[in-house]
């Protein structure tokens, strides 16, 4: 009826577009409403009048509108909502969206406005692009205002970017996006042997800012890498993403590339150019910046000059990524300045000038590197540094479930991992998590023979590859060392040559001096490099740089050709190339790479250190008592014994060098050791050897009261090694591990050395109540343990029961600091139960929690008669005057209290008056801090004059 009436009014213009035979009436009704709305206000009025005339008298109430609906201001306000905009601008939005539906869906998915099911429903193959766009708009409207706003901002950002591009550059942009999408859609790290879709396998790692940022607490997201968050140098353009080998740096960049290619992220950058420093190493000729840009990324089909001019004119719209700065042959240097983009220079000079901004200032650069290769010279050219710290516990769970399509298998793998915390700790490194997922049948359920070290894991994956290559030939763990010894040695020789000369990509000609055969290549350890931009013959690389280090270590252990000084120089990390030049195999390697002998001495730089250290670590593990029998069939026992003694001597000598560097303490202070570069590496080497005698010998010479390992990339793996070595200390030590990634698994790995710790500092380590429960259960049994600091973790009220038990049990416990966690009044009440009984605590820090007045009152009740507490911090806890009045009783009656911190609370004059009155009865209290409370300036000045111990 309505349709007939309206159609008569509009002279049948739309009747046949809406009244489709066979279509449900409710679909026709929706289509009618959409058409009417799009025709404007007058049509809507006509439609409502039509409704009034055709509907029965008993129904109009359901369609009535309040009087204020026709108020112009109300109508304007309603029409300005984002969902309304999607309706009013629908034709133009459909026209825009039909060209970028995939990008919009990816952006909505990433921002959590859409689910995967939403995206799949819109991407149905039977729909045309315009139909997908319309369906997308309908879904967004159904999601509400937030989703509508996000989509409109996404479209606006894309239109603003597109308006700057000319047609030629737009064509190049499409080609660049297409190229990057093709290169990034499958996982390229770990050799990409499984051909896994990046969408299916990608798992977020833990990203944190290297420098403390007041506006950021905890992890950051992918979008924050290039954003303004955490900027420390506004003049610089380079972001550094640093992380250990296998932490997922390359995969992270690959994910960013794919998101940009799909227009799902980094929309502020119109062009993105990815570079691999590993591949830049193979570029021997001098290039101009323009040649570097197009030859190593994406070559424009035409109009190179115009596109290059656009890049120079709009540098702030361009993004470069450089993967693996630590793999360049040269260390970062700012000695050679270059500002002309057409002047030719060695590739590393171009790269360094891009990073420091001399060349093409304003282009944003994202560079990845291992921390040990980051020099002070490089750091001063960074706008910020982001730390990639591998997988969190939930990340491990996510990766394993993605890796195994069978949920039953994934659940079994995860169950086995959680019963083997040492192996679980190793899985915090993504590359090791991948290995464990690939080799779960060999690695899990081994009982006492389960892997304990990184060397164990890599021996297992090598066995796994050989088993899959020829399952009938190899049935035992020892047999592959005999059957495949020759190919292992050939691969090891190539790997070692590459590590020494900073070479990670090998040509066909490079394989000849090591006699690498097609059969060797078929084993799968050495794969064809996916270098799509260099026009040359096939190139090869190891599955992962850690795999190259492993094979290099096998060569060091087994080869009879190496100089006797190789192992000492490997552990000293210097002059190794000089040693190599005296051997026939090395001279061949260095000649085919056309490396100048004179430059070798000059370029023995820090960039080589990470892979040399890793090779030395594997060599330590391979020469351990548990693995040395593997090599006796191919290497005389005397030679193995000699190499083992060399490694042991190197480790002992290295530790002594560190201990001798410890300065004498200032008079009145205790002796502390700050970890020097390489200390944690030596600890890990000792652990890989699994020799208690070496650990005992090393620790017998360490005499310090505090061992400081802050900002040292200490994760669960390092915690396992530390506990293995530190448990042999002669005297108790304070262990400071602030600002690392210890986590709950790392805490559990530290338990074996808790008996030798008198204090433990674990600020900012992503620790939860679960880790604390295990830590306290162990600490109660340790006579030496007296102090703990756990600022900036993820603790809640659940952990306070454990701390209450600690306070009740250990009557010699001195310091408990739990600042900036998630403890509420209930947690404070639990702590109060322990404080009532404890007769030793001197320092209690609860700043930055949420205990409120109720929590303050509970603590005050427990501490009123206390005779030991010296310092109490309740800063930023939402405490008002009621809590302050309760604490005034502590101030009045506690004879030991010297400092009370109540800054950044909600205390009013009434609460301060109570504190002033209490201070008159206790001369021992030195200060009460009250800055940033609910006091006006006049009140502050008056009360400060009345009581000098109040600090505002």
Structural account:
The chain starts with a helix and ends with a strand. The protein has about 950 residues and is of the alpha/beta class. The protein has 6 domains: about 1-55, no CATH class; about 80-160, Death Domain, Fas (Orthogonal Bundle); about 165-390, P-loop containing nucleotide triphosphate hydrolases (Rossmann fold); about 395-450; about 670-790, Alpha-Beta Horseshoe (Leucine-rich repeat, LRR (right-handed beta-alpha superhelix)); about 795-950, Leucine-rich repeat, LRR (right-handed beta-alpha superhelix), CATH 3.80.10. About 45% of the residues are buried. The chain contains 47 helices and 20 strands. Helix 42 (about 800-810) links the parallel strand 14 and strand 15. Helix 7 (about 90-95) crosses helix 10. It is globular.
Q: Strand pairing plus helix content: what structural class? A: alpha/beta
Helix content, binned percent = 40-55%
CATH class of the largest domain: Alpha Beta
Give the uncertain stretches in residue-range form: 1-17, 66-70, 74-79, 580-606
CATH architecture of the largest domain: 3-Layer(aba) Sandwich
CATH superfamily of the largest domain, called what? Answer: P-loop containing nucleotide triphosphate hydrolases
Kindly state the mean pLDDT as a whole number?
83
Q: From the alpha-carbon coordinates, what is the Rg to the nearest angstrom? A: 33 Å
Amount of beta strand:
5-15%
Strands ordered across the widest β-sheet: 10-11-12-13-14-15-16-17-18-19-20
Major beta sheet summary = 11 strands, parallel
How many individual helices?
47
Membrane topology: Lipid-anchor
Domain CARD: 84-157
GO biological process, one term: regulation of apoptotic process
Domain NACHT: 237-373
